[in-house]
């Protein structure tokens, strides 16, 4: 049993060292920049209005591709809050997506 646990531990360690970290995709970067443009300045400081505005703009930009329209919803629910917090903290709009690791350096 100890041998199995040691083997599992070694496999987990090797996977952690070998597998690359998740990198932002081009779509993540595109959506982040779109979100920054839509939410800067924040709409009446109400997140749900910024979210609705982002979703509408995103769907307009990606019209006709159903899975990308769903990606707009998923992105808004998962990533819009950190973007708004970065903008509110004073981060320059052009630097927000790099700061939250949605776009490459």
UniProtKB/TrEMBL annotation:
Q: Which residues cross the membrane?
A: none
Q: Which InterPro entries match?
A: SapB_2 (IPR008138), Saposin-like (IPR011001), SaposinB_dom (IPR008139)
Q: Which UniProt keywords apply?
A: Disulfide bond, Signal
Signal peptide span: 1-16
Which Pfam families does the entry mention? SapB_2
Question: Which residues belong to any copy of the Saposin B-type domain?
Answer: 25-105
Protein name as it appears in the record: Saposin B-type domain-containing protein
Q: Which organism is it from?
A: Caenorhabditis briggsae
């Amino acid at each position: 049993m100890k041998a199995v646990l040691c083997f599992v531990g070694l496999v987990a360690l090797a996977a952690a060292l070998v597998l690359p970290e998740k990198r932002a995709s081009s779509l993540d970067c595109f959506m982040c920049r779109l979100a920054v443009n839509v939410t800067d300045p924040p709409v009446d400081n109400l997140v749900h209005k910024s979210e609705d505005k982002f979703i509408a703009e995103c769907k307009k930009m990606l019209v006709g591709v159903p899975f990308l329209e769903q990606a707009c919803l998923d992105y808004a629910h998962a990533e819009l809050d950190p973007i708004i917090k970065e903008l509110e903290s004073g981060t320059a709009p052009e630097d927000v997506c790099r700061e939250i690791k949605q776009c490459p350096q």
